[in-house]
Design brief:
The complex is a heterodimer of chains A (394) and B (225). Chain A has 394 residues and is α+β, with helices and mostly antiparallel strands. Chain A contains 13 helices and 13 strands. Chain A folds into two domains: 188 residues, no CATH class; 173 residues, no CATH class. In chain A, strands 1, 3, 4, 5, 6, 7, 8, 9, 11 and 12 form a ten-stranded mixed β-sheet that branches. In chain A, α1 packs across α11, α2 packs antiparallel against α12 and α11 runs antiparallel to α13. Chain B has 225 residues and is of the alpha/beta class. Helix content of chain B is 33%, strand content 29%. Chain B has seven helices and ten strands. In chain B, the strands form two sheets. Chain B has a six-stranded mixed β-sheet with strand order 6-7-8-3-9-10, sandwiched between helices. In chain B, strands 2-1-4-5 form a four-stranded antiparallel β-sheet, covered by helices on one side. In chain B, β9 and β10 form a beta hairpin. The chains are: A alpha+beta (394), B alpha/beta (225). The interface between A and B is medium-sized, with 29 and 37 residues.
Chain lengths: 394, 225
């Protein structure tokens, strides 16, 4: 039966190939969409929750989620936390460390590049165990800069080299290079906090304060304490909430991907349905003959569904392969269009289970799309109806 | 004639159609028996009802009134499932246009009815049948590589793959030249001599006269010779 089905498909090679291609597109779209959803969630969770030792952020409305989005496009958040709040935060019970920081992004005049700057203090070493200098040292003065691993590679700089920023028309000395963390840090410049503030005219103003608690079981207690000591327009959010907040910004991208997947699946379904309807029309006499020699309704339905299964399975496997090959290009495209927080780690991660689910979905939807043509074929009377198909029986 | 020797039987069968404003009575009160081992030629002018008779006899169509019996069982109102089973196991079909599937080899074409019948020995049976019709060296050819006579012999082998009790042939020599037609008819005669019941619709009176019985249909009515 399988060979019979394959031979039937070979009869119209071009049409079969076009239908398979439609299925490849639908599957690849589904696999990439699922890969983006999984990859982005995982990368955000990793960068904002799992890899850092930061448990709570003290910020103003919208920050640092808003800040993250603003810097993704290049910019400086208009909202700020006064630096003086840091000391008050440090006095709260069970606060192990508190690090004030400033984030901003500046885009070159020609728009070709956006640089991300972090203003930090030595507390970063206590609060971020993943933040580690692999070569060189901490800042040695106000003209010091520490480079993320990727930026150092791109700029071809090592400790001791000078680096010029046309944003500030000023030269800095590279004192350290960070160990690669596959996070946003890899692509960032780190400056002493007060230098960073001064460079953009935000002296005494912070993006947020990162807090590490001494006992994670007391996280909620610390949050309530901080909430109680700060004015109404302050936000005290956990790293997990921050991650979830970023995901809400990503929701629109997910929705667009969802629509794209639905359109691709719909087109594939229409293609399969159309192909199978044409097949049934062209092979009407053949189906009639098959009914003559003992093919039952179920046999004809199985034959059509089998042909569709082969088309869909070939397309689905091809779609997974195409998606795997397209990951780098798709990732570049998404990074260039995302307006929400963009993690440094890969945001498109394919997974065997998701690929298997995509293959199953495409095959199921495809075979379901062939049911109408299959039923139509099964209703063809034995001997194809012949001249009788023009007549009404009485 | 004892009941059990009759393979198929039509009793007062009528079959009508409406085409536009016209009411056509393709069969009009036809009563016929087809005894086991008989070779019946059905002749008559075009549009007389020969093919309709064959379709009803082959359980491919249902009569407007009257009864059909296969091996004595009334199958007039039988379910589509039962009719399919009868077509699978009891009846073999040979058509004027051969209806070979162009993408399958000769051997695969012959196996097709066996595939639907779930016949486990269909491969060996197909080989044996093709050898018996003189096509043992053409097993892996495609229909497009065969002559008309060879294609019809493949169609006959295919009709026999499930070991039917009756073979229905609708103008099996209609597309063949006289020499090839004679060869194909000889094959029918051999099959009939071996005990197979055959009903053959034909326009060729020379061939019809060689059958054990000739049934003439005119305007849907039977005139038996």
């Amino acid at each position: 039966m399988v060979r019979f089905a394959v031979q039937n498909l070979v009869r119209s090679r071009t049409r079969t190939l076009l239908t398979v291609f439609g299925t490849v597109v639908a599957t690849a779209t589904l696999v990439l969409a699922l890969g983006l959803d999984r990859g982005y969630r995982s990368a955000v969770d990793s960068e904002l929750v799992r890899k850092t030792g930061i448990h709570i952020y003290v910020t103003r409305e919208g920050c640092p989620m808003e800040a993250a989005s603003i810097i993704a496009q290049g910019g400086i958040s208009p909202l700020f936390v006064p630096e003086t709040v840091t000391d008050a935060v440090r006095t709260a019970a069970h606060v192990d460390a508190a690090m004030p920081f400033k984030i901003f992004a500046l885009t070159t005049a020609d728009g070709s590049r956006t640089d991300i700057f972090f203003g930090i203090t030595p507390e970063i070493r206590r609060i971020r165990p993943d933040w580690r200098i692999s070569t060189g040292t901490w800042f040695t003065g106000d003209d010091s800069v520490i480079l993320g691993a990727e930026i150092a590679r791109l700029e071809k700089r090592v400790p001791g080299d000078r680096i010029y920023f046309d944003h500030f028309d000023r030269e800095f000395t590279v004192t350290g290079i960070l160990a690669r963390s596959n996070s946003q840090d890899d692509a960032a410049f780190f400056l002493p906090l007060h230098v960073a503030q001064r460079l953009i005219g935000r002296e005494g103003k912070l993006t947020a304060i990162a807090v590490k608690v001494d006992d994670l079981r007391r996280l909620e207690e610390v949050r309530r304490a901080l909430r109680g000591m700060l004015p109404e327009d302050y936000f005290v959010i956990t790293a997990q909430e921050l991650s979830e907040g970023v995901m809400t910004f990503f929701a629109s991208t997910r929705a667009i991907m969802g629509v794209m997947v639905l359109i691709a699946l719909l087109l594939a379904v229409l293609g399969i349905s159309n192909t199978m309807l044409m097949t049934v029309t062209e092979r009407r006499r053949e189906f009639g003959y098959l009914r003559c020699v003992g093919a039952g309704t179920g046999d004809i339905i199985r034959l059509i569904a089998g042909e569709t299964f082969i088309v869909c399975a070939a397309g689905a496997v091809g779609g997974v392969a195409a998606a795997s090959a397209l990951v780098p290009m798709f990732e570049r495209f998404i990074r260039s269009t995302l307006t929400s927080y963009i993690p440094a780690a890969g945001i498109v991660q394919l997974h065997a289970v998701y690929a298997a689910v995509s293959v199953a979905v495409v095959i199921l939807v495809g075979v379901a799309a062939s049911l109408y043509p299959a039923l139509k074929a099964a209703r063809i009377p034995p001997h194809g109806g012949g001249a009788r198909c023009l007549s009404i029986r009485w | 004639m004892p009941e059990h020797t009759v393979v198929a039987q039509l009793e007062e069968v009528t079959r009508g159609y409406v085409r536009g404003s016209e009411r056509i009575r393709a069969l009009d009160g036809v009563t016929l028996q087809f005894p086991a081992g008989s070779f019946t030629a059905v002749v008559g002018p075009s549009g007389s009802g020969k093919s309709t008779l064959l379709n009803i006899l082959g359980c491919m169509d249902r009569p407007s009134s009257g009864r059909i019996r296969i091996h004595g069982d009334d199958v007039t109102g039988a379910s589509e499932q039962l009719l399919t089973a009868i077509r699978r196991r009891t009846i073999g079909f040979v058509f004027q246009q051969f209806f070979l599937i162009p993408t399958l080899t000769v051997l695969e074409n012959v196996q097709v009815p066996g595939l639907f019948a779930g016949n486990p020995s269909r491969h060996e049976r197909a080989r044996a049948l093709l050898s018996s019709v003189g096509l043992g060296d053409r097993l892996h050819h495609r229909p497009g590589q065969l002559s008309g006579g060879e294609m019809q012999r493949v169609a006959i082998a295919r009709a026999l793959v499930n070991n039917p009790d009756i073979l229905l042939a609708d103008e099996p020599t209609g597309n063949l030249d006289s020499k090839t037609a004679a060869g194909v008819f000889d094959l029918f005669l051999q099959l009939n001599r071996s005990g197979l019941t055959i009903v053959m619709v034909t326009h060729n009176m020379d061939l019809a006269r060689c059958c054990t019985r000739v049934v003439t249909i005119r305007d849907g009515r039977v005139h038996e010779a």
